[in-house]
Write a structure and sequence with these properties.
heterodimer; A: mainly beta; Porin; 18-stranded antiparallel β-sheet; 1 helix; B: mainly alpha; flat; DUF3570 (chain A); DUF3570 domain-containing protein (chain A); DUF4266 domain-containing protein (chain B)
């Protein structure tokens, strides 16, 4: 019996000693900052119509836009096993607009007959896998000839223990400044054109936008997941466009006038379903309402079909219906007694449809044998609006990893 | 801003239907959920399409695009 007791005692002490030596090193590995992903997007957009707001709801809406974007995503893991992501996004688009040429047709000093719009942004996010949280901050800047914008966004997300649900919160603010360029015939005495070299003064007005967003994503089963988001937004400042003309019933002319506040409430719902082995259904619905009297419904359906493991086509269809804001009327229909007035058909009542397809190639060894060039995607869409406006868009995306 | 009762009911119904049918999916069962085309956001190639919706239609937001900034006035 004594031998047994001694044996058990020795075994227990060995076991204890064993535990004592098994203090594990922390399960982290600090990694250097490295490039995770680069996306290069090029797009060409062209539209035509006959309801230009610059000329009071009539005239050419011809517009072309060549847009280029590059985003660079860098990642690192720190000593506390937190994943840091830095993302740089640079966007440049160059557009020509027939209607903007009518702001000042006599002097050909049109502010943005053609213009280059540049908008970079930088974001930093930190993911903590132990707490399943992600938080981040982003700053953005946007500049056009007559418009500047500074943006700040904060976001926070928390995933469930099984990673099947995530709730996220975000808040953003954009602080913008308009250069108040007026149509040539409506400028007061001594008021400038806003053109380069014109020393006469012009006004500058603010337009600020604030938005918050609450989202929840949920994996429903092995093939189905959903996403719901509510994003109220509030805008304040000069919300009308200063060079949009208005023609009243009595023939008098002025510039667009809209309230100085706007409260918007969009609610979006996504449902993505992997059907069989080859087809994915991406469905999106949005309901929108604001305090200017507009309501809208938007449905988007896209069905990527995997022809092979490396090639997929993605036909899509989007339908949108919106009611007009209560301040809208067509050319020559406004009464001079109205408090607010606009003839901008972008906020009129209409139905729009956008139909097209995408083609995605993602060979395993990289495109053209270039390993890091992971995929390329070409996307074409045709847009028609019940106001008569038509547009075409073609986009090329190259992804490098 | 009164949302019609039918639309509220439809939205709530979708949420309840979606959440009540949820099952726990383990990480190793997520090969389809993790497919690049299943990502729960707009596609990167839709980036500029979202810009022109923002400029050409009054309704904006709740789709991954920005909700302010930039004039989009031409």
């Amino acid at each position: 019996m004594r031998k047994i007791c001694i044996s058990v005692g020795v075994l227990l002490s060995l076991l204890r000693a064993g535990y004592g030596q098994s203090v594990t090193q922390p399960a982290y590995e600090s990694r250097k900052l490295k490039v995770e992903e680069i996306n290069i997007v090029s797009s060409y957009y062209q539209q035509d119509g006959n309801n230009s707001a610059v000329t009071g709801g009539i005239g050419s809406e011809h517009l072309t836009d060549f847009a280029q974007s590059i985003d660079l995503v860098l990642k690192t893991t720190n000593r506390r096993n937190r994943e840091h992501t830095l993302a740089f996004d640079l966007n440049i688009d160059h557009y020509t607009s027939a209607s903007s040429d009518q702001i000042d047709p006599l002097t050909v000093s049109s502010a943005s007959r053609s213009d280059t719009h540049i908008y970079p942004s930088v974001s930093w996010t930190v993911h903590n896998p132990d707490r399943r949280t992600t938080h981040g901050i982003a700053v953005s800047y946007s500049t056009e000839y007559d418009y500047k914008s500074y943006g700040l966004n904060l976001n926070f997300a928390k995933a469930s223990a099984d990673n099947n649900r995530e709730i996220s919160l975000k808040a953003g603010a954009f602080f913008d400044t308009w250069k108040v360029i007026l149509p040539a015939e409506l400028r007061p005495e001594g008021y400038g054109s806003g053109a380069h070299g014109d020393r006469d003064p012009v006004d500058y007005k603010p337009r600020n936008s604030y938005n918050v967003g609450l989202s929840i994503s949920q994996v429903i089963n092995k093939r189905l997941q959903a996403f719901l988001t509510i994003e109220p937004a509030f805008q304040q400042g000069l919300l009308s466009t200063p060079f949009h003309r208005i023609y009243f019933q009595d023939g008098a002319e002025t510039v667009e006038r809209l309230p100085g506040n706007r409260l918007k409430l969009p609610i979006g719902f996504r449902l993505h379903y992997f059907m069989g082995d080859r087809v994915i259904v991406r469905a999106f619905y949005r309901y929108y309402i604001d305090d200017w009297g507009m309501q809208a419904h938007t449905i988007n359906l896209e069905t990527p079909i995997k022809l092979t493991s490396f090639v997929s086509v993605s036909p899509f269809y989007r339908f949108s219906h919106q009611t007009a804001v209560r301040y809208f009327a067509a050319y020559g229909q406004h009464r001079s007694t109205d408090q607010y007035y606009t003839s901008d058909y972008d906020i009129s009542g209409f139905n729009s449809q956008f139909i097209g397809t995408g083609l995605r190639l993602a060979p395993p060894g990289g495109l053209l044998g270039i390993g890091p060039w992971q995929s390329i995607e070409l996307r074409y869409g045709h847009y028609v609006r019940s106001t008569g406006m038509v547009a075409n868009s073609i986009t090329l995306l190259a992804k490098l990893k | 801003m009164n949302v019609p009762i039918t639309q509220r009911a439809l939205l709530m119904g979708l949420i309840v239907l979606g959440l009540s049918g949820c099952v726990t999916v383990k990480e190793y069962q997520k090969n389809r959920i993790n497919d690049a085309e299943m990502e729960l956001s707009a596609r990167k190639s839709e980036k500029f399409e979202q810009n022109f919706y923002l400029y050409r239609e009054g309704a904006a937001g709740a789709n991954g695009g920005k909700s302010g900034g930039g004039c989009g006035c031409n």
